[in-house]
Amino acid sequence: MPSFKSPFLLLLSSLFLHVSLAEIICEDLPHDICAFSISSSGKRCLLETAMEADKVEYQCRTSEVVVERMAEHIESDECVQACGVDRNAIGISSDSLLEPQFTNKLCAPDCSHNCPNILDLFFNLAAGEGVFLPDLCEAQRINPRRSMVEFMSSSGGAAPGPGLSDAELSAGDDALPSAPAPDFLD
């Protein structure tokens, strides 16, 4: 069984490490690195659209969301890929936590141990819905379909979609396939 110490130390060290040659101002960032970046002031950058000369243009803006213990951070392409996020997404929603493929990537060790910025963002989005992200990841590992139903019920989401019978939703762990356990839960 993996030790909790190693991932925890990696997470802590990642929170305090950053490389910056100049001050990061969201409005000065190109749109292809805006999303999942944090300004020098510690505020998240977000990608928005604006109409300019009858053409939709992407613009990077500073949000009011302050990230504790992290500033001047531009997310790596490796983390964007490992966590399954999209730099071109306009706004970020907790709705992505309802997608099993996304949750699998977010909870996987490649993301959960190496990408504290993205993990922090989605941890806070889940918390805003009344869900503790490590619990969602554990539920996803044990019973993926049930975890989505539980998330939807705790966040006031819609009823389960077609294809999920009451028997499937109430079945034990043996009835549905399991995903690998995210290491940050160990």
UniProtKB/TrEMBL annotation:
Keyword Lyase listed: no
InterPro entries per UniProt: PAR1 (IPR009489)
Biased segments, Low complexity type: 153-165
Keywords: Signal
Origin: domain of life: Eukaryota
Location of region: Disordered: 152-186
Signal peptide (UniProt feature, chain positions): 1-22
A Pfam family per the record: PAR1
Entry keyword annotation includes Signal: yes
Residue ranges the record marks as coiled coil: none
Name of the protein: PAR1 protein
Species annotation: Hibiscus sabdariffa
